[in-house]
Amino acid sequence: MLVNKYSIILLVVVSVVASRCRRQTPTITRQNFAPYYATDKKPLQPSYVVYNVSDSVSRLYFSVQSNDLLYARNEQENNYFARILLNYVVHPLNAKKFVADSGHVVMSDVNDPGVNKILAGAIDFDLTTTGKYFLELTFRDLNKMTISHNILYVDNSSVDAKNNFLITPAGSETPFFRNYLDSGELIAVRHRQSKVQVLYFHYYKNEFGPAPPPYAALGPLPFPTPDSVWALHPSQAEAISLDRPGYYIISTSKDSRNGITLCRFHPDYPQVTEVNQLIYPLRYLTTKQEYQEMLTASNKKKAVDDFWLGKGGSEMRARELIRHFYFRVEAANRLFSSHKEGWKTDLGMIYLIFGPPSSVYRNADSETWFYGTEGTGNSLSFIFRRNSDGITDAEFVLDRSMNYKVAWIQAVDMWRQGQVYTAR
Questions:
Q1: Rounded to whole angstroms, how far apart are CA atoms 363 and 69?
Q2: In this predicted structure, what is the pLDDT of residue 23?
Q3: What is the CATH number of the domain that holds 148?
Q4: Segments forming the whole domain that contains residue 2
Q5: Is 354 domain-assigned?
Q6: What pTM did the predictor assign?
Q7: Share of the chain above pLDDT 70, in %
Q8: pLDDT tens digit string along 27-82?
Q9: Spatial CB neighbours of 161, under 8 Å, sequence gap ≥ 6
Q10: Sign of CA dihedral 32, 38, 43, 44
């Protein structure tokens, strides 16, 4: 979500109810998260950022585009209002059924005809002690009766915990609701502890390739070595630009592997507008020779067009394949960006080839995707584990298995035969 391209409106808070409960309670993680990935159906997709205000209090920032909400008429005031309900439940990561805090906030906004606004707000919640937590969030459009569920991770375990940093556009108090920057964007970096006198910027070139197929074994990868490191006083980090493509880990120590991660991908990301960006995702569908020939072609655009025309058999069919394939690439970029482009991740790879899952279930440590009807012989499932030692907390690793080989080959073959493949 490009915050600087929309007007940001603070939501009117109608009521806040917080229960500082310390009780055992079931979680809500058996909710189906699949609608969040069904981007063709325009689901409700709020964005979130968590910032630790102190050792015992964190702040949840949230935003949603007004175009995603239904504005209903209020007969008494003769205006159209959106009404939103946000519920939150906070759990320690090592005691998942224990509730550290819970509550809800009700908000409203008056319609501004013809204007798409970003509606933003914030609410504070309690933590029982320093450590790691997760939030279960339910975001409801009370007029449209649509619901979005999400799970966020909160780290308050060390000075370099990700949530001790806040990234905002320069001169703004509203955070970025994405982990990637546009070219030339000026940002401000804030750390919650005033005693921090140095911020270290660790720069890494983004040289990651696409995720291997789901049946390919993948051993543990060593944590990369930064290509360069530099230091700034916090007062110097109030209007800076991170221009080099790659990713940056910002921390309070030169030798730290923790901190907050920001990325700079190709221009116009998450959209695909350059010819090389059209070629790279085709690695999932091409032979090694086909891929190398496209990369080295004198006219790369023609090489891409010829590939799709050869698979589709007609110009109309080729256009349909292109539309669906690159729609999925861009959706994966929006949904799964971590330290590399979303389509390159394990989540993005499965999404690109098999399509949006039928059902998605999350818990504090993993995410399970189902294609087809659960529990039947024709269903297909993938389990992704959160990499707690990863470069970002959005890094999920697939449980790979040779059992996926047949399904993968069949799906790729369907694409190569000129059919948009969706495993539903």
A1: 27
A2: 45
A3: 2.60.40.10
A4: 1-157
A5: yes
A6: 0.90
A7: 92
A8: 445 788 888 888 766 778 899 999 999 999 999 999 999 988 999 987 777 788 99
A9: 52, 155, 258
A10: positive
- DSSP for 97-113, please give it: TB-SEEEEEEEEEE--T
User: Does 339 map to a domain?
Assistant: yes
Domain end position, chosen among 157, 176, 210: 157
Give a yes or no: residue 375 inside a domain: yes
Whether residue 282 sits in one domain with residue 152 = no
pLDDT tens figures, 325-362: 999 999 999 999 999 999 999 999 999 999 999 999 98
Q: What number of residues does the chain have?
A: 424
Structural domain count of the chain: 2
Tokens of 252: 């309070």
Q: 392, 69 in Cβ contact below 8 A?
A: no
219 vs 160, more confident: 160
List the beta bridge partners of residue 247: 204, 263
The closest alpha carbon to 357, from 11, 6, 85, 36, belongs to 36
Residue 93 inside a domain? The answer is: yes
Q: Report the distance separating Cα 131 and Cα 153, nearest Å.
A: 11
Residue 219 has which token pair? Answer: 């051993």
Span 187-222, pLDDT tens digits? 999 999 989 999 999 999 988 899 999 999 887 777
Distance CA 286, CA 60 (A): 43
Report the C-alpha dihedral over residues 162, 168, 174, 177, rounded to 10 degrees.
Answer: -60
Question: Residue 388 has which token pair?
Answer: 């707690």
Query: In whole angstroms, what is the distance from residue 319 CA to residue 326 CA?
Result: 11
Phi-psi region of 155 (alpha: psi -120 to 50; beta: other; left: phi over 0): beta
Phi/psi at 409 (5° precision): -60, -40
pLDDT value of position 11: 55
